[in-house]
Amino acid sequence: MAESLSRRYSDAYKRMFLIPRPDGTITRILPVVFPTAATSTALCYKDSVINHVNRTWARLFLPKSGTKLPILVFVHGGGFVNGGGADPVHQSLCAEAAGRLGVLIVSVNYRLAPENRLPAAYDDVLEALTWVRDGKDEWVRQFGDLSRCVIVGESAGGNIVYHVGLRAADRVDDLKPLIIRGLVLIQPFFGGLTRTASELRLQDDPYLPLHLTELMWNLALPVGSNRNHEYCNSRVGGGSGLLDRVRDLQWRVGVMASDDDPLFDVNVELVKLMERKGVRVTSKIIRGKGVRHGAFITFPPNKNEMFRFVRSLGFFS
Question: Where in the sequence numbering do the catalytic residues fall?
Answer without folding.
Answer: 155, 261, 293
